[in-house]
User: Which sequence fits this backbone?
């Protein structure tokens, strides 16, 4: 598996993964019905640094990095990650997590903040804790989980 | 003092207040040098509901409301507020705060979240606490305060 900068040619493969991820309505805020164009405009918006994890010709995961705030708050980074269903449980998320923290340092970020980690998303919460993130806040009833209803979200943070 | 929806004709007056507010670099993340066009594009971006507080012909304050997250998180509102230096200490902030909470309810939001209240901004922190907000998280070194250096930011929240 290799991680590299995303190219325009990766967009269709990234959309396929996004579509899978949002279909379940249990981890990401985007409605399962969000159209491809809207989703790709968001995922590849100009202020983001975009990466993909590839296995041969297959895109198995993707993530982006950006500043969490403009101006006087721009030293804190933010990121989002997706893994294809076929590649789940194979360490793709962890590889992207570690790579992205190094890359965030390289880009000059001093810390990383996740604004919205669904509390019941154990895989994500445990992954982030295992690479040094702490829960610094909890938003009550932040997420309309498709099967469990109103669910809290964590705000997670670590210094770089 | 009256609060009403903002019109295109209010933009120049709103910019004057934003410019004053960001000049000090002690409460808002925007660089004091942020250009007018960039700032107004942000303040009046299409997903926002914009309001102004007026005293006769003078715009003395402004605020906006929007969803803090898309899709499955869109029931949580978010907002930002500015008061002109000439109108400070005259209850404009409190009037806008109370009005905005009613308006957020009317728009269907179930709660309100502020993602970035500079911890040393006592006027704001105390105002929000006095109208029912709680600190639900604290971001270490989130803000490069122009005079005090690295400063924490609060995440504040209340149900509506």
Assistant:
């Amino acid at each position: 598996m290799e991680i590299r900068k995303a190219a325009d040619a990766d967009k269709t493969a990234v959309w396929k993964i996004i579509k899978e991820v949002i279909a379940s309505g249990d981890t990401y805020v985007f409605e399962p019905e969000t159209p491809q164009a809207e989703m790709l405009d968001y995922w590849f918006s100009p202020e983001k640094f975009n990466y993909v994890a590839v296995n041969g010709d297959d895109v198995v995961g993707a993530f982006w990095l950006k500043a969490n705030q403009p101006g006087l708050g721009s030293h804190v980074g933010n990121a989002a990650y997706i893994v294809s269903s076929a590649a789940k449980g194979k360490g793709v998320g962890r590889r992207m997590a570690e790579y992205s923290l190094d890359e965030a340092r390289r880009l000059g970020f001093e810390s990383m903040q996740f604004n919205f980690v669904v509390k019941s998303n154990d895989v994500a919460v445990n992954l982030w804790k295992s690479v040094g993130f702490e829960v610094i806040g909890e938003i009550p009833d932040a997420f309309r989980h498709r099967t469990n209803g109103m669910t809290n979200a964590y705000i997670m943070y670590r210094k770089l």
